Amino acid sequence: MSRENAACPVLSRPVRLFQYPDGTETVSLLADCGLRSGRPRRLVHPLDEGIAGSFVQSLLVVAASLTVGICVTLCALLVYPVAAAARRLAAVCSHHLRQYPLKHRLSVALGLMAPQDAQWLLPGGPVQPVYQALLFCPAPFSLHAFRAAVEGRLRVRAAAAPASVGRLFQKVVPVAGGLAWVDDERFAIESHIRTGPELANTAELGRFVSSRLVLPLPADRPLWEAVALPLPDSGETCVLLRAHQALSDGVGLLRVLCHALADAPAEEEHMKPTFGSLTYSLNVLRALFVTPVTLAEWLVASVRQRRPAPALRDWEDADVSLGSLSWEHVCQVKHVTRQSVHEILLALTAGAFRRELQRAGLAIPPDLKVRRWYLV
Predict the structure, then answer these.
(1) Is residue 109 part of a domain?
(2) Residues 345, 351, 356, CA angle at the centre, nearest 5°?
(3) Are residues 321 and 252 part of one domain?
(4) What is the DSSP letter of 171?
(5) Residue 319 and residue 253 in one domain
(6) Which residue, 124, 223, 343, 362, has fewest beta-carbon neighbours within 10 Å?
(7) Which keywords does UniProt give here (predicted)?
């Protein structure tokens, strides 16, 4: 088909594709503007087309992707060390760290806050989001013993694994390269674990916890706190733990705070999984031999299906069939889509015509819709 007017929604010549035995209903493609009919050609199913062109096109796409990807990766590898060194050098020279010795400033520069954590702190101080958890402690409850237990266990864990709980003793300081974690020299457990108001019942507890959700954590000390809330009606004491998201992920951080009050669990014995390892190895070995043979057979020994219908001499009032279209596939589509066979054939015909219009040079073919057994 050739194009005269790209805005034309339909073909300029009615095309009759199917006709019922009584001759009353036909499938037509109506047109009234823009496009003139071209020389008709036989519709070719994608499965019947040659694979040489698509194979060469795929090779060109892969080659272009590898070339662009390798160039971009090499440029990133060359630029990233320079940018990282400049950022850390700016942090070392920041005026916020001048009171610390050079060795301490270098350690701070190497531990700058990650961008995904700094995005929660840059807009206007440590605000939302804040993770909260409730711990219910039975009576009697001693705030002094509670503080001593938390501080002792956190310091033991920080000495054994600084990366896991070290940020609980650090505060956020702005530097030239962004934000950095600095040890709080004035750290005091009394500033983080304190007592709260006495609540009458669980309803007041819920309102108090909800009101704390919108309150930010102080920025001049580590971003966590614990508030002890006595509950006279049950005799228990509820401890509200609050921690900022920049410290760690919520599950891991609350687990550290909660486990600081629990006994050390027994070490679990991890068994090495062995099920399916031999089968996976055999499948990989078999794929190494089967894949080249299958690919060679597909490229060289593939046989095109023969069409049951001869070449069409007159393209009107004739039966058109596709050799790769099977009745079983049509029935499967019919059962899944709840459509009739005729509607499925109409959809196939619309897709074939859209493909032919694209081949003929029409970049955006008109949409062919099924309406009262007609394609319009």
Answers:
(1) yes
(2) 125
(3) no
(4) E
(5) no
(6) 124
(7) Acyltransferase, Membrane, Transferase, Transmembrane, Transmembrane helix
Q: Which amino acid is at 376?
A: V
Q: Express each pLDDT in 274-286 by its tens digit.
A: 555 677 777 877 7
Q: How many residues does the chain have?
A: 376
Ramachandran region, residue 125 (left: φ > 0; alpha: ψ -120 to 50; beta: rest): left
Q: Look at residue 70 and tell me if it is in a domain.
A: no
Helix runs in 5-161, H state only: 52-92, 102-110, 115-118, 143-160
Q: Is the pLDDT of residue 34 over 80?
A: no
Are both 197 and 341 inside the same structural domain? no
On whether residue 244 sits in a domain, the answer given is: yes
Which CATH number goes with the domain that contains 169? 3.30.559.10
Do 241 and 328 lie in a common domain?
no
pTM check: above 0.85: no
254 and 116 fall within a common domain: yes
* Closest by Cα among 325, 314, 331 to 349: 325
Helices (H), the chain: 52-92, 102-110, 115-118, 143-160, 162-165, 189-192, 202-212, 250-259, 277-300, 327-337, 341-359
Sequence-separated (6 or more) residues with CB below 8 Å from residue 276? none
pLDDT-derived band of residue 273, with 50, 70 and 90 as boundaries?
A: low
* Span 207-227, pLDDT tens digits: 888 888 878 888 888 888 999
Using only the alpha carbons of the chain, give its radius of gyration.
Answer: 36
